[in-house]
Automatic annotation (TrEMBL):
Top-rank lineage group of the source organism: Bacteria
Binding-site list for ATP: G8, P9, A10, G11, V12, G13, K14, S15, S16
Family: Belongs to the cytidylate kinase family. Type 1 subfamily. Belongs to the TRAFAC class TrmE-Era-EngA-EngB-Septin-like GTPase superfamily. EngA (Der) GTPase family.
Compartments (UniProt record): Cytoplasm
Function: GTPase that plays an essential role in the late steps of ribosome biogenesis.
Assembly description: Associates with the 50S ribosomal subunit.
Protein's UniProt name: Multifunctional fusion protein
Chain's gene name: der
Amino acid sequence: MIRVAIDGPAGVGKSSTSKALAKYYGFAYLDTGAMYRACAWWCLKQGIDLDAEQVDERVVTEAVGEFFTGDHFDISVDPDAPAVSADGEDISEAIRSSEVSTHVSKVSNIIPVRNVLIAAQRAYIAREADKESFSGGLGIVAEGRDITTVVAPDAEVRVLLTAREEVRQARRTGQAAGGVGAEDVAVRDRMDSRVTNFTTAADGVVTVDNSDMDFAHTLDTLIGLVDEAI
Ligand code: C5P
């Protein structure tokens, strides 16, 4: 059983490479950013004011707790069909809107919210890593901001995927042309780095800077790291 933890800032290409890596090995794929995005989407839907100077942390935490414990939230960890839903409605696209992207850090900065999500993520990783998965592979690729350090510091493979800011901004702007919400990645990174460290690799975490790598090269590099661990 192999657990692969991948952290990194916005716009580095974590999701596409992690998904491809999971497919390559037939592992499950957990997009933890999608979980935070789903929480922000849910809060906005409940009419919670995430633009307030002082976001009401108690109200957000309660809403997120209800989202998870009330069985509203669901996520598919199939790398061929990753999807997030709320009350059976597929919200995979809605959570990529610029509205969600610009508000998600307000939610993920709240420590009690993080604790709910971290516990849920650990449970997914423990369950999925141990069951024969989509093409018979035994393992999971989980990506986010605190997977290598907090959620799964004991993962067999731990990677910090990074790239220069101007490269990441250009990638995100390119995605925006394809329908993904446009945004300033630096603003989100600044907010996110208050509660997570994805700029320097923790002990035992391998840094992969893909500023000058294309997608195939990045994927090959990650495959090399996983092969070493198998
Ligand atoms: O990975 P993605 O850019 O979709 O993540 C969306 C947001 O979710 C991040 O900007 C961050 O606020 C939050 N996040 C987090 N911890 C993680 C994954 C994502 O705080 N492990």
